[in-house]
Amino acid sequence: MTVIRTLALFGFGVSAYLVWMKLTGQITSVVGCGGEGGCSNVLGSQWSQWVLIPVSVVSACFYLGLIVLTYEVSKSTLPMAAFPFIMVAASFMGLQRFVTKSLRPWCFTTPLIGLFSACAIFCKAR
What we know:
By secondary structure, the chain is mostly helical.
């Protein structure tokens, strides 16, 4: 469970960083994204919010939920938590690749951590 918690904590950290940058309007100065046209393509797109809430907030909630689940849920029911991570990761990676046509390191890391978390959950359940 330590690997799953570590991945979830890292995913929460990346998500929280993206939330902070979005809410403070610093989407052109995200570290490692190259200014205008970089992360601003993803964080400034219509897909960056869901019902006026930055999707990074939703992502952070997913990762916090996973941390709680590792303490509260049995090992046999935890794999059900992996499926939302797989679906959300696939959709965000697809949006970045095919819709915004901009694969940015931080915005791509969050769903990638979700896939790694799902793999760790499945490995732990075996």
